[in-house]
Amino acid sequence: MSRAAVSAFAGLGRPGALFRRRLRDHLDWEIKNLRLVVDWVVALYIVIPFGLLGGRYYYGFWHGEIPPVMQGIPPIALLIVPLLTALASRPILMLEPADAVFLRQRPGWLRGVTARGLTLFAAFQGIKAALVFALLLPFLRELYGLPWTAVAALYAAAWALHAAAGMLAHFMGVFRRKRLKGNAASAGLLAASALFLWAAASGTAASLAAAAGLGAAAAVMMRRRAALSHHFEESAAADLAARMRFAALLLSRAVDKPRPPKRSSRLLRRSGPLLPSFVGSWRTRQIADAALKSALRDSGYASMYLPIAVLGLASTAAGPAWVGWILVPLILLLFSMWLRGLWLRFADHAFPPVASMDRALADSACAPTVGIQMLPLAFALTACLGVKVLGAWWGAFAFGLPGAAAGVLLAYMLALFWQKKE
């Protein structure tokens, strides 16, 4: 063995060095996955604008701009948010399936790696609970008027809940083949959730008692997990699944997955034309109809269209009117750019090279294809803005109809701009 290899393995002569090496490799891998999804275009057009908008709302919540619809919500409903984040917690122990050859035969090393992973898990859950409570803090302080002692007690209970729920979920995966222990872990998860909600509704003393009880249960389970020497294959599988969750969430839309054969289509192949005759020539309408039907048959189309519409409507309805005047054109602009990307993918892949489409014909079909898809979203957003500005139901038609026409006009103007640019 070479001197470089000997020096490399010499640094892994202790469990702590091995754990740090694996943690560094895991973080590097997660950062690489994040860079595959969030490039500078996504950061410039999505992350930064919505981050600034969220910061503006957060600043307004601290200065009396909480929406009236939030004033009727009880505090227990708001605390479902940390409960959901706690149920999604999983410990990462940095175990590998190949460790059965070495670590399983050396319990001291196995306990050293596992104990460090559990310590990191507890610290990370504290940070995650703190971030969740930082988002909820304006409502807890300004809306419900909770004192800082009550907020601190709720945070301690939430931290303990995150640790206990993560360990119970981990044991559910480890003991999945043993029905009794798996069911006991599931029952413990439900009991911990109910205890947190009861303590949050009962006051500061109950929250402190729940934090002590859940924290003690989490400490016992961590000690049990560090001393657990059997069920190694199940432990490694559960740890691998926990490490893959963030990567699976990031890459679920970026990696092509095999799709099962379609049993039924949303639009029949012999369905009639979707666009009226005044849109353009019959060849333009045929290509635009084909692009629309292709988009509607795509399973990911609705999962992207509906969240954009719901997020835009919620932001327009909850924020002040001047935010809506800025937000609605921005959402329509970003949405038109996304639809333009769908059109380019259709134009590049729908026709074989031997039957490539004329470029002028493709450019003429782009505008009606994007415009007809912009129509519902433009009407919904501008109608919501009209009701907010005018304070009456007829504001939906006063703003919605011109807004829908403006959305279609925006699609035609952008199509003309892209055509000249290309």
From TrEMBL:
Keywords: Membrane, Transmembrane, Transmembrane helix. The chain crosses the membrane at residues 34-53, 73-93, 113-140, 146-168, 205-222, 301-319, 325-344, 365-390, 396-418. This is ABC transporter permease. It comes from Saccharibacillus alkalitolerans. InterPro entries: EcsB_ABC. Pfam families: EcsB. It comes from the Bacteria.
